[in-house]
Structure formats: structure tokens, C-alpha cells
Specification:
This protein has 202 residues and is α+β, with helices and mostly antiparallel strands. The chain is built from four helices and ten strands; from the N terminus they run E-H-E-E-E-H-E-E-H-H-E-E-E-E.
Amino acid sequence: MIKRLIPFRFCALCLLLASCAVPKSGPVDEINSSDIPFELNSPETSAPATTTSVELVPPLTGSTFEQADLYFVDGSSLERVRLEIPSPTDLQGVFTALVAGLPDPAHTKVKTLLPVDFVAVIEVEGGVANVNANRVYLDSIKPNEQRLAIAQIVLTLTSQPGIGQVTFSVGGKAIGVPRGRGDIAGAGTPVTFDDYKMLIAK
């Protein structure tokens, strides 16, 4: 709430002007300059400054963000988008942001093919990230979109520090996934950034 304080000089000036108003009739008495208070006969014409008290809302604390490269689908190719996501930007957080899609309307031409309720546990061992999902979520991706959806995950995870390969499993059991060229990687066979880089928009 903004409170505006009216200075005492301003009130006095209003009273003085009211008392000095020119009457409609009768004689006009000239006031001696020595009788004018507060130096109102000074050549200074600027109005007295008013004091404004503003109550500021403190910024939110504890909300920090980091940049991460995520890949989204644009037609039949993928496009890298650098997003600010809540810190720390661990693989689980990056995967969650990938599923959530783009919050910025400026990027409406690109999208995620991952279902909004896609849930997977990302486990890392020796630079290999394993995406352990539920068959229900994988089956909900259209067959003709599965290659691009897998590419989204692999390109995004291998763009994070320390991750060079990705494997996929369902309920802890290794599965094979389509590579960028259309062939299938065997169950448990790691895939890399290079397996899908040909899908990135030039």
C-alpha cells in the first residue's frame, strides 16, 4: 500500500491562498512583502517535494535455475533448445523437464512426443544412463513416433555432463530401441548421441 504524506508547508500554503483570494467587490489591500511567511515571495517557483512511502515485496528466495540442453521434435527432425530448469539439473530433473515440454509460447512449432504422464527412473553407472520405464508409458507412444521419442531422450541425456551412453529397460528388464537410421539396437545395447545426430535439424 502506498501512503502519501502531505507536508506542513503545503497545508499552510493552501490556507494562505484561501485567505488571500481576490474578493468580487470592495477594496484590495496590498500585503507588505515582510509579512509574507515561508519566503513565498521568493523567485523560486518549484512546488515543495512530497514524501512517498512505498512498501516493497521481498523477492522469492530458494528458487534457483540452471541451463540445460533439451531436444524437441519439429516435424521429422529434432531441435536443440536451451532451457532454464530448477536447480539442481540432475538427470531426473532434466528428464522431467523434457516430458513437461516447452513453457515458452515462442517455441510452439517444436514439441515433445513423450506422454505427459511418462514416468521413468534414471539410473547412472559409469557414464551410462539407464532409463527404467513402465511398458504402459512406452506403449502409449505411437509406433511411427517411437524413433523420434527415443531420440529426444538419448540426445538430451547425452548432452548432460558425464553421460556418454543410454540404455533402456522396462521394469528392470533390458529392451532394444530404434536407432536414428531405423535399425534396432539389441536389448541392453547402449546407444549414443551419434546414433541420433542425423535427426537433428541443420
